[in-house]
Automatic annotation (TrEMBL), chain A:
Signal sequence coordinates: none
Listed InterPro entries: CT_C_D (IPR003833), Cyclophilin-like_dom_sf (IPR029000), PxpB (IPR010016)
Protein name: 5-oxoprolinase subunit PxpB
Keyword ATP-binding carried by entry: yes
Organism, scientific name: Winogradskyella flava
UniProtKB/TrEMBL annotation, chain B:
Keyword Hydrolase: yes
Organism for this UniProt entry: Winogradskyella flava
One Pfam family recorded for the sequence: CT_A_B
Organism lineage string: Bacteria, Pseudomonadati, Bacteroidota, Flavobacteriia, Flavobacteriales
Protein name: Biotin-dependent carboxyltransferase family protein
Cited InterPro entries: CT_A_B, Cyclophilin-like_dom_sf, PxpC
GO MF terms held by the record: ATP binding; hydrolase activity; transferase activity
Keywords associated with the record: ATP-binding, Hydrolase, Nucleotide-binding, Transferase
Domain Carboxyltransferase: 23-282
SMART domains xref list: AHS2 (SM00797)
Length: 240, 282
């Protein structure tokens, strides 16, 4: 799992580390492992880390005086196999109601794809998706694993207000809107689960490296879970 | 405490930003022009991350119910205390019921009002900076009540004079590091980027500043990667977008430049139609 990494200055306080620019689970493992080791090394200082598909950006809370020293320290840390950290990833099941009321684009989507609605739901609930990282909006999960039969370019005119929890497909990706926002993806369902909650620590219960499945639920179960969440008596637990 | 009589055009509570949550997609936020806000905080002996009011283009008016020391920095919005002009970059003593009011910015775009000890407001995920949906509102409203510490007489005035460096308003040079995708640019594109002047478009806010005119662009989109405030992106249509403090944490457009902290502050004080030039930091 050794990659040839590129280290470069991003600004006064940040260093960018690049892996080969591919979407790949082994690259993800290597990134998360290194991220954990960096966080452990700088446990006493404030360090912010953004991880994406094939890179990490480290933002220090101090100006980097000697870039070469800092990069050398990072390279040594990467090569130090003793500090290797086993990433424990979890598997989550996310309930989704695919009813017309929530998945208002499902009908149109099935027509485009020449599939029945139940075929779309089956293809969408079958894969175990990988959470590559969280970005774009607070709590937005970048998921890998969408069946190519469901690939569809985003809409040419975005909807102005997509509701929080909407489950949608855009291009080669599927995702869940973590908050109300405009968006150009095809909405096929909705989950009552809050993916981002400032009252939780950490605010995202699902983390980079975890896996998840969508589970189809009917409207009454959706409403049931929604009510339990409103009463703070619902806890999303990993299945593994 | 103070009451907001008029919030102005776009006024927010900001501190140095929300650190430690970018891995969950939370923007860092924080004051747009950190030089000016830190200057006002320093005059009062506050820490750099004390929360201030950031007023944009047109300032507001505020009634203070309890005595406090304040300082004003950033763009000049002709501040008045009970209808008398007051100076910026100095400590101003406020008595109970004083009314402080601001007009339109004349030499920049953003003005900072700092109070001794910092403004007290809800702290969400380690910061008071307003950004929805992390905080309930993204601006302050008329009749809002803002809290601050009790004024204590023990404050010792520092007599050493500190000079405000107004290059933040006067210079239009934006110093920048090469972005990760800079070297994918052709020599002629680099030349153009570093020699031409660009104009701030009317699409400018705390999230991003768009610049005009369009550049010809042959760069392909990249695999979604981290970005920061100050990252200069180039869209497929050739639009230059400079990300600012409330920007998203990741993006898919090539990152051709990365502004220095100083350059982000300078751009924060630029308004629609003003011109800027990029210069590579050596």
């Amino acid at each position: 799992m050794e990659y040839n990494l590129k280290f470069l200055r991003y600004n006064e306080r940040s260093i960018l580390i690049e892996w080969p620019a591919i979407i790949d689970e082994n690259v993800l493992k290597s990134i998360l492992n290194f991220k954990k080791r960096i966080q452990n090394k700088y446990i006493k200082q404030k360090v912010d880390i953004i991880n994406a598909y094939s890179s990490i950006l480290i933002i220090y809370d101090f100006t980097i005086d000697n870039l070469n020293d800092e990069i050398l320290a990072l390279k040594l840390l990467y090569e130090d196999e003793k500090s290797f950290y086993e990433i424990k990833s979890k598997i989550w099941e996310i309930p989704v109601c695919y009813d017309k009321e929530f998945g208002f684009d499902l009908e149109q989507f099935s027509k485009y794809k020449e599939l029945s609605k139940s075929e779309v739901i089956e293809l969408h609930t079958k894969p175990v998706y990988k959470v590559y990282f969280i970005g774009f909006l607070p709590g937005f999960l970048y998921l890998g694993g969408l069946d190519f039969k469901l690939f569809l370019d985003r809409k040419s005119t975005p909807n102005l207000n997509i509701k929080r929890g909407s489950v949608a497909i855009g291009g080669k990706q599927t995702g869940i809107y973590p908050q109300d926002s405009p968006g150009g993806w095809h909405v096929i369902g909705k989950t009552p689960i809050k993916l981002f909650d400032i009252n939780q620590s950490p605010p995202c219960v699902i983390q980079s490296g975890d896996s998840m499945k969508f589970v189809s639920v009917d409207k009454s179960e959706y409403l049931n879970i929604e009510e339990l969440i409103a009463k703070s008596s619902f806890q999303l637990n990993p299945v593994l | 405490m103070l009451k907001v009589l008029n919030p102005g055009f776009y006024t927010t509570i900001q501190d140095a930003g929300r650190f430690g949550f970018r891995e969950y997609g939370v923007p860092v936020s924080g004051v747009m022009d950190s030089y000016s806000s830190q200057f006002a905080n320093a005059l009062l002996g506050n820490s750099d991350d004390a929360a201030v009011l950031e007023m944009t283009m047109i300032g507001g008016s505020f009634q203070f119910y309890t005595p406090i020391l304040i300082a004003i920095s950033g763009a000049i919005m002709s501040p008045k205390l009970n209808d008398e002009h007051v100076r910026q970059h100095t400590i101003i003593q406020i008595r109970a019921n004083d009314i402080l009011s601001f007009g339109r910015a004349t030499n920049g775009f953003r003005t900072y009002l700092a109070v001794k000890g910092g403004l007290k407001s809800d702290n969400t995920l380690g910061s008071q900076s307003q950004y929805t949906p992390i905080t309930k509102a993204n601006v302050i409203f008329k009749d809002d009540i803002l809290e601050y510490s009790k004024y204590s007489d023990s404050f010792k005035k520092v007599n050493a004079s500190v000079k405000f460096n107004d290059s933040v308003f006067k210079s239009n040079i934006l110093e920048a590091y090469k972005g990760p995708e800079f070297d994918q640019f052709s020599e002629s594109q680099k030349q153009l980027l570093l020699s031409d002047e660009f104009e701030v478009s009317k699409l400018n806010n705390r999230m991003a500043y768009q610049l005009e005119p369009l550049l010809t662009n042959s760069l392909k989109p990249i695999l979604t990667s981290p970005v920061l405030p100050g990252t200069v992106q180039l869209t497929p249509s050739g639009q230059l977008i400079v990300l600012m403090r409330d920007c998203q944490t990741t993006g898919g457009y090539p990152r051709i430049l990365q502004l220095t902290e100083k350059a982000i502050n300078r751009l924060s004080q630029r308004t629609t139609q003003s011109c800027v030039k990029f210069r590579l930091k050596v």
